[in-house]
Design brief:
The protein is an alpha/beta fold. Helices cover about 55% and strands about 10% of the residues. The chain has 36 helices and 20 strands. Strands 1, 2, 5, 6, 7, 8, 11, 14, 15, 16 and 17 form an eleven-stranded mixed sheet that branches. A three-stranded antiparallel sheet has the order 18-19-20. The protein has a two-stranded antiparallel sheet with strand order 3-4. The longest helix is centred in the middle third of the chain and has 66 residues. The protein starts with a strand and ends with a helix.
Amino acid sequence: MNPNHMIIGLGGTGGKIIRAVRKTIFQEFRSLSPEEVSVGYLYVDSSDELMRLDDPTWKILGQSVQLGPNSQLHIRCANLSSILENLTNYPGIRPWIGDRAIWNDILGGIVGDAIGGQKRRLGRFLFANHATEFCDRLTTQVRELQSGGETSVTFHVCTGLAGGTGSGTIIDTLCQIRRLYPDSLQYRIIGYLLLPEEHPKPNWNTGNYHANGYAALAELNALSIGKFVPCNIAGNGGKMTDLQTPFNGAYLFTTHNENGLALGVDDIPNVVADFLYQKIVTVRKVNWASLARQENAENGDGMPETIPGTNSGVRSKRWLTFGVKRIAVPEEEIAEYLAYQFARQAALQLRYNNWSETEGYLPNAKNVDLMSYVTAPEQLERWLLSDEHLILSAAVLEADGTQGRWQPITRYWTTVAGAFKQEIEEREEGAKWLDSLKGRLEVRFSDQYRGHGVKAFYQTVSASARERAREIRQKLERELFGNWRDGIRSVHEISGLVGAVITYLRSRFERFDDDVTRAKAQEEALAKKLKDQEKEWVKVGVISDMFGKRKRIFDACALTLQDLYATRTRIEGWQFAKKFTPVLTEEITQLKAELDRSSAMISEAVKSFEEQIAERCVDEGGEVDYRQQIIRFYDPDLVRTVTRRLTKDAREQLTQTQRVRSALVAMLGDKLDFRTFNERINRTTFLDVLENQCMENAKISHNNLIESSKEKLIGVSIIDKLRDRYGDRQALRLFIDGIVKSAGNYLIFNPDEIKRSAPGINPGAQICVSTFTVILPRAPEAEDFVKMLREVFWECVQTTAREFLDGSRPNEIILTSVTNLFPLRVVQLLSFLRARYLERVNGPNPARARMEIHIEEDGQTLPSLFLPSRGELQDRIAPGLLLGSALGLVADRENERGVKELAMIVKDEFGIETPIFLEGSTIPEALANLPEPKALVLEETVGKHLTDPELRREPRRTELTQRLAAMVNELSRQLPPSDPRTKLFPDWGRRAIKLLRGEG
């Protein structure tokens, strides 16, 4: 049963880590929720920059891995001022919110919804308004994870400590998780905390950047040892006193590792995601027991450093750091390179369809005589663009041709004239034939042609010109879209062809007047011919009639009449065509616009694919760059050579581009036209479809065509590649040694602090305990080489705690180093952060500074993260030593050497005095030498005496105040002017007097 993991991202850094984890999982499994991985997510931020569902930065291979709304919590709030005015209604906020006057200044600088803005307490304020919602989202996600049967959950809480949102919500996030899930063994909580950069990007540091990091660490340290008990922001505001083990451990990391590898702040989320992926996914079938022990501080003394002479913790050792390095055949990148090359080929086929045996599909159009093709009679006839269709001699709409309603103009008048003629000859007297025929044809022309009469018919169909134009466009488009779907024509070629149609229609439109003129001339000629025939008709007598002359003349007149009425109809048809053709041209132009839109989008996609190609597999062969986090072990020239061969394989490209076209067409449903294509497939969708389909195409093509193991690019064993290159043990040792030396923690330690010995530090407890883990893929076919590889790793790894685990990914070897059990004082960056923190809290308006950077109170009671320096210890104990002298608790006594020395007189329960010598014969000497354990006893003894109310009553208080003032003045005079304590004693004296008065 797979363990459950819940990744919680706080602020921008947390969101980026979640994004990187989900991309990595999708790259491996091509799924957001693979069966083997049980992971939930919750991203909390005051900015929605990374939360938008259409954010392109969450895409990988055409698939968005964006979180659903149920895994996002946007803690925006625009009514903070209203809350401050009604704090009694917000018990979870009232106890810790702080000075209202300071908040007025803070909120006065906010426009619109508030965001964290590098103010930690503001970040907490925002989170507090959504604390209940956070708990609800969290418990819902956990229930869903547990529905698989496994109940234990590891919570991975990721954030940066420099900002206002993540840094301001980390304490409450940990506390709320532990409140809801108190069993720290079944519900482990692990933090992943990015420390502020010493030199951030321009404009990143708006004042609290470094101070936030130090304040957050101070609070987390105090939380870990039980010295900071925050308010419950999701409850009634009471203190969360029942929390045990608020977090099992917390990883600290920076953008620089201990071996000099520097990453950009935008790259570090990928490193953290890589580490999380190894912990959650890679070894899901392996018991990585050592890591679990380290994260729970079980591999050594996990007890905190203490106040000297006591068991009271002061500096937690629940901190860890990590390093992760991979030796990998960059299979995902190679697959993506192949996929984008295939996608480029598919896009070029769709746009140009110009194949070259040496290059594959070319990025330019073929030279084709489209105008000759378009104007061929058979093409015009098939596309309903012939003259007969333009003048509606031939049917355009399907309904036009039903039940034989429409016949071509010439055939129509031939048929009509023939029928009338036969009927007249059979039923009427010969002398009346011609007049009867003329009358009937005239009635047919004026009133009955296609149910209207010719003129009325064309007037009627003018109202439906748009429908007929659309029918012609649709017929043309159906054929051309089918050509595009079947790979016969490219969209560029179709666009050119439609452009040629438009050119033809415009040219045809310009000749319609000539057609009308010719038809009218023909009409006049036929009318004259008919008159001449009529003159002959009237001359027919009885005898000539008997010899068939009337029949012959009638036959000739009938032919003339049918031609005359056909011509007159065509004149009306040409005049209609002159009005109809612009409408048709407009429709075809709209089709051209859709084609151009499709073509432009595909062109943009080609550029996008070329950009993606240019970013991948660009390495040059040569020396290994050990500084890189991922040692990319492959031959980029071989990748490019094999890819070129696949993209030039005509049969394979024909097949793969057909799969792409089918995938696109499947998205259109029943409406197979370019308008629907543009409506349903925008640039983003087009890219997504091609990326997804071509990833599959590329892998199929690779597996089908690449038979030699030497040329395989995907599914390659890193063990085989290493064996091919480093068969010699010494060469392998040099390679592995360079990698091991460059692999290191993303945290730099201060060696002086590691070696430091002082009271309160267990001398028998080891700190900075490191374990080096190598995750090797199984390779039974290379058993001897794997054995040698293990031996070489064992020789090169200096850490005594080292182990090998079996990995599941054949293309990579993973190296991880984890160091734990250290107090924060050993972190080299901490001194810098403290200096910036002190500058901030001791600068102008310290009260506001402390309120902004601490989530509760002012931070002055938090345990120090450092061992006290002599100057700090001296400053701390001087007021107490002065008070002890004034109260008679400190006096001269003779030590065991017979020398007068200041001693603190302590009485036991029987009243018997015991001197505790203070390492000096004068107050300045004692301050210079007094060790911390004795200083603590002095502070405790003086503190007890100060509880006596008699000390604050007159005249005793005045007497002691005068004694202190005189003592301080005398000490200042005794010291040489060069001694800095001459300026410090007056301040120490004032603090001692305030303590005496109960004001300290």
